[in-house]
Design goal:
By secondary structure, the chain is mainly alpha-helical. 53% of the residues lie in helices and 8% in strands.
Length: 95
């Protein structure tokens, strides 16, 4: 985990952490996709990204989430991230 605000502020130390990461998972709250956009503006590669609001979990009018909503999003991230990486490793092995 790394400080996205520091990346946005141009901290080379934090940008380096993202560049050297084996995988970068980005969790965006809404369709503006601010977290993903900050990383892309810095030329950083995103391995997996999700928009929580597109999954039926709205951040408005509050930032309070139920345990069920958190489990839903976490499960989706794990399932899709693992599936994507398994497929990528399989494809690389066959090339």
């Amino acid at each position: 985990m790394c400080c996205l605000s520091a990346v946005g502020a141009g901290s080379e130390t934090h940008i380096k952490v993202f560049r050297e990461a084996k995988a970068v998972i980005v969790i965006n709250g809404c369709q503006l996709m601010c977290a993903s956009n900050i990383l892309r503006q810095r030329g950083l590669k995103i391995t997996y990204e999700i928009v929580v609001a597109k999954e039926g979990v709205n951040k408005l009018p509050s930032l309070d989430y139920t345990d069920e909503e958190v489990e839903k999003i976490a499960g989706k991230i794990v399932d899709e991230f693992l599936q994507k990486n398994i497929n990528n490793q399989h494809n690389q092995a066959n090339n």
